[in-house]
Amino acid sequence: MVERFIDIEKVGSSILPGRTMYIVYVIVNEDDTIYVGQTNNLERRLLEHNSKNGHFTGNKGIWRVIYKEEFENRSFAIKRENELKSSRGRNWIRTELLGRASVD
Known about the structure:
Shape: globular
CATH architecture: 3-Layer(aba) Sandwich
Largest sheet: 3 strands, antiparallel
CATH class: Alpha Beta
CATH topology: GIY-YIG endonuclease
Number of helices: 4
């Protein structure tokens, strides 16, 4: 299976007043653990990640956003989230966003 990233120019991230935007985000903690997710309220979601109740992220320190993309359509956001969660996507996060060597 060949992996391909969504062309962000085609799906866009133009913000229209009154429209719900879906945000795909990458967060890391102090140990550079990577978490990729999507939400329609990044501020609320980050607070949830930084609470002690988060399933994967609770009790793993403070998380900070290092990357985000906005979509008008949730299905595009989910597709992009899955791309970033793939092996190729995680390698891109490591090399381009964190400046680390790629893991093959």
